Amino acid sequence: MRLKALILATTACALIGGTAVAKDMTIVSWGGAYSASQNNAYHKPYMAANPDINIINDESSNEAVAKLRAMNEAGNITWDLVDVVAADAIRLCDEGLAMEINHDEALAPAPDGTPASEDFGPMIVSDCYIPQIVYSTTFGYRTDVAEWNGKEPQDICAVFDLENFPGKRSLEKRPINNVEWALLCDGVPKDEIYDVLATDEGVDRALAKLDTIKDQVIWWSAGAETPQLLADKEVVIGSTYNGRLFSLIEEQDQPVKMLWDAQVFDLDGWIVPAGLPEDRLAMVMDYLKFATDTQRLADQAKYISYGPARQSSAPLVGKHAELGIDMAPHMPTDPANAQNTFLYNYEWWADHRDDLDAKFQAWLTR
Amino acid sequence: MTDLTAEAPVLTTRDGKPLKASLARALRREKLRSLMLIAPLLVFIVVTFLAPIADMLFRSIDNRIVAETLPKTVVALAQWDETSGNLPDETVFQALHDDLLIAVEEKTHTRLGSRLNYEASGMSSLFRTTGRRVKRMEDGSYAEQFINADKDWGDVKTWQILKRFSPPYTAGYFLNAVDAQVTPDGIEMKPENQRLYLLLFARTMMLSLIITFSCLLFGYPIAYLLATLPLRYSNLLMILVLLPFWTSLLVRTSAWKVLLQQQGVINDALVWAGLVSNTDRLVLINNQTGTIIAMTHILMPFMILPLYSVMKTISPSYVRAAKSLGATDWTAFWRVYFPQTVPGIGAGAILVFILSIGYYITPELVGGTEGIFISNRIAYHISSSLNWGLAAALGVILLAMVLLLFYVYDRIVGIDNVKLG
Fold first, then answer.
1. Which of A60, A67, A351, A356 to mutate to test the interface with B (most CBs of B within 10 A)?
2. CATH classification code of B197-417
3. What is the interface pTM, i.e. ipTM, of the complex?
4. pLDDT tens for each residue of A1-54
5. Coiled-coil ranges per the record (chain A) (predicted)?
6. Which of A339, A300, A283, A19 shows the shortest CA–CA distance to A154?
């Protein structure tokens, strides 16, 4: 009899409990250390403040663009918030798959009252985009290469200098960034690069420069590859995202250094899928307001070395949560690192990506 | 009964119906019943497999987006002579203005821009910037206002592209998929430095054949051992064959990376043994060699298992009989044993070949630039560039190639000769 009562009671509890935690919110991100940093900085405090909401992490940002289109065509949006890079956000916005956001209305102002659109400033590259962090694609090199006779790369053109810096390199298997660096080291002034690239001769010139190192390059498609190749001594210098190099150098203690020269800034941030039902949209917008405020963005930098996208967050960046080291000098936006940076031209790439990619792939397979 | 048949010229059943019709009905009912038994599976396959494939393949010619987004402009443009070298007249610009107003409202103009950007760079931003301006345009002299908004509207080429891609169906994706393009002078091949897909198709075929052949070469002796060794050894061997088969594909591919890379296990061992010098270690990965090695290993079970199941049924007494009649070992194998294994080879080869022709994860990870397949480009267009039309066209061509090969294979080997077990 007592057992029966117990079973009934637990069932009842489970049922009531089940209805109480009914609100799930699916947030899509990149997985790994990046999702962990978002989990610590955004999700945990938000769920603590809103016990009725349960955040589900989906690690599908890699194929988010294709999946969002498929969901849109099927008329069944199962995601509530998606983390994508800026170029994908522009594409999703163009395709009508992401919702346009009124930044000042939807997001919290800075502590001093500056509206969000000014606080983010030029980081808002698309009407649908809410930037979170600034990351950069830059180079890391091994410090123990015997053939270099004690020399260390000082600037980006060391990548193209096989005489002084022999050995294999790793570059991303796509034209973006590589063609800009190639032209830069072929003597094109920084502010003319996109004008040169817009011509057929300019593309040929960039590819000709890349041709000089082509047989020494291992091409990567996932951000984790270069750190692995560097650690395995497969390559002596390679490009990847700065956060990956940070964990290779600081957390795994490998003899690798960063070459910040001509690092290319890029953004990562949120988009809200178009066509969410009213109640889910309200839930997402509430979360967004919380997760992109000044303090939260600064908090994320405790767990990963990416710079917060708000100007007002920069002074609040503190120490790494576990290593206890100061994070500011590891930010791509730190003045010492950002002496020579390269700005990724989103508008230009949105137009020329298809064309240049076809040419680049044809060149790769030749 | 005998009376009945004697009286009636037509055989009937007891209820008086002709026997023939009754039989036909019984058979039909039986067919219907069996059809109903498989109906759930059939419906499932049609709904979840065939229909999506057909839908995807249809995208390779679908171009309705242009006429749907700019209906009036398309009609107005039909009057314009694209070879004249002059811009279209004011009515076309006005039609464009009317269409864009609605498109901007529905946010479909940027989608059209992305579509046309596959054909000519710059269309994407053209539609994006024009979309921002179109609401603020005033009545009259639209041509001037559009050219002010973006000077590309004053370029005849923009209008030529728009006109060329205004019909609801296009061969553009297919032409693109075979490295061709439409120019004002007709269809011609793309410039040398932009050709990609024909090379990739040829390479996919070539590498798949090499992989199939090397699977056969290495799989045949293993299958033979499996079929002939005493049970306790062959069981162990079978586990060794199946264990990698059950392991995750990514794990196996990553393992090959560790083994094959220049600072990897194989190169280290060779250097240690003094077979290669430390300075010129072998390049075994990030090229075609890497793809062939890794995929041969990954697809090997698909060759071994059909071979094994066929070899298991071959009685050893045939070879013994051949030998007792004076055949040498080789003759006994080649003339007596081998022909009996051909159905297994056929099944294994076709399995391995068809699987490898559509593979993309392994080539992506170990193939570098020379060892990638056409499926890697299809995956890119599906997931990154969102050019699903081109991906579908490439897919149709790949499917057609496989079917053609299947047909040739049927002609030469005969599909009835294939035995899976």
1. A351
2. 1.10.3720.10
3. 0.83
4. 455 665 555 555 555 444 444 589 999 999 888 899 999 999 999 999 999 999
5. none
6. A339
Cβ-nearest to A354 among B200, B364, B387: B387
- Alpha-carbon gap: B122 to the closest alpha carbon of chain A (Å): 5
Residue A96 falls in which region: left (phi positive, over 0), alpha (psi -120 to 50) or beta: left
From chain B, the residues in CB contact with A65 under 8 A are 383-384, 386
A23-134+267-330 to CATH, choices 3.30.1360.70, 3.40.190.10, 1.10.357.10, 1.20.210.10: 3.40.190.10
Q: If you write DSSP's letter for every residue of A292-351 in order, what string do you get?
A: TSHHHHHHHTTTSS-EESSGGGGGG--B-TTT--BSGGGSTTSTTTTSSEEE--HHHHHH
Residue B219 contacts residue B307 (beta carbons within 8 Å): yes
Instruction: Report CA-CA distances (Å) from B19 to B22, B25, B321.
Output: 5, 10, 55
> What residues 161-220 of chain A have any CB closer than 8 A to a CB of chain B?
168, 173, 204, 218-219
Residue whose C-alpha is closest to residue A330's, from A269, A255, A222, A244: A244
Q: Please tell me if residue A361 touches chain B, with a CB cutoff of 8 Å.
A: yes
Ranges of each domain in chain B: 2-58, 64-170, 197-417
- What's the fold here for domain A137-265+339-365? D-Maltodextrin-Binding Protein; domain 2 (3.40.190)
Residue B179 has pLDDT above 80, yes or no: yes
The 10 Å CB-count burial string (b at 16+, else e) for A62-79 is eebbbbbbebbeeeebeb
Q: Is A93 on the interface with B (CB under 8 A)?
A: yes
| A363·B193 Cβ contact <8 A | yes
Distance from CA of A142 to the nearest CA of B (A): 15
Mapped onto helix, strand or coil, the DSSP state of residue A170 is: strand
Distance from CA of A221 to the nearest CA of B (A): 8
**CATH 3.40.190.10 occupies which residues in chain A?**
23-134+267-330, 137-265+339-365
